[in-house]
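for the writeup, i need someone to sanity check this before i put it in the appendix. the sequnce is what the collaborator sent (i think, or maybe the updated version? ugh). structure was predicted straight from it, no edits. if anything looks off just tell me and ill rerun, i have time this weekend
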Amino acid sequence: MIGVTVGTSDPLSVCQTCGACCAFSREWPRFTLEDDAALDRIPRDLVDDGGGRMRCHGDRCAALMGEVGVATSCAIYDVRPEVCRECQPGDEACQMARRHFGLPRDEAFGGRATDPAVAGFLEAID
């Protein structure tokens, strides 16, 4: 399996203490722009053949290792799907997933929702 190690000075290191986006919804890890070659690099046992997405255990992506909110990593980080690459620390999707797990909004991200509907949702649950 392929893993990732990110130094603590890297802003993405906060992802390794979170993992909420990877366990928020079985609908999120859907394949979108991947071609057959990209999909072939993902281990078959981690692909939901009938769903066009990563295999999940409940809402949690099967490639997520560790405990959400404590220490996590992606078993296939280097070949993860495009939808996973698009989720960025502090973006709207990140903040929504963090709230779902009761994790605080991390202002170190500098992330505030720019979509008015998402901004309203995040303010309402704060």
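The radius of gyration is 15 Å. The CA atoms of residues 19 and 83 lie 14 Å apart.
thx in advance!!
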